[in-house]
């Protein structure tokens, strides 16, 4: 029987809708998928069966809910369909293996001082080579996503400018794709962190959120206003680290003085702790166990200046929630009430008193999960069988 015109595109669109729900919300009963999509039960059954055939989902028996009758099957995203995620920064290159549903199977951090693009690619290849057993456990690896602390052209994944890394007009996505024989994408790390927290973390279900991420290379961020992520005319919105917080302060690479990311920085915390480098867990442990007058002074000053910036963001965006990721989350945890008080007292018209300031939920996995979303996007938009190559690991 011939296919009706347009029926194939409708089928793909419906598959996409169901897979996206599973990816972003986790396992769902068929009955809940029916409610969320508005499709009838037979359509949902056909779609989940096809997603299972494509290796993108699987079903288990739902736990008994105390009601008579057969429970609705529980449909899961196949977490063994995965992508490689890469985050280069001035002190390390972190590589992860992330499955559908945002599940991080592996995360490997390799110390590296301001790695170049070739060094980033070589480190990624080496780490991927060491992940042989984890890759063998996957059903499919569909691509690579990279989160970069800089301005990235989303059309081709080239890095226009990453000043802390010394990169300018570097074809990062193309280099990763060539080295690993997988399609690759790249984006700004703070923008991807905002996406990850909004999809899988503390920003789920919130329509008005400001997100700030602090890393060794500086501070970036993003804002979701009325449920819409603000991207800007060229996709470069979110350079919140260049908000002025101290007139005549430290010089910034952008040419100004007193920017948030020059006054509030990881290097200052590491110095007072006597550390050269540290991941987030190590930083938090050190700040918790090595409390000293010097640490209290440095952390307090940074919290005060961070508060000045957050007051500005509250006045501009009127968020319900401010999420702090990276070392900013660790800094907040050192004295959460101090920051909350600054914002409550400083924002206009009492706006700061109703703002919930909290730590991003995804921790060290945040930017890997965000980077993975770039590589999952084509699959979610058009579920389809995999291509040969590294994409088929078994």
From TrEMBL:
Pfam families: ROK. Coiled coil: none annotated. Transmembrane segments: none annotated. Belongs to the ROK (NagC/XylR) family. This is ROK family transcriptional regulator. It comes from Arthrobacter gallicola.
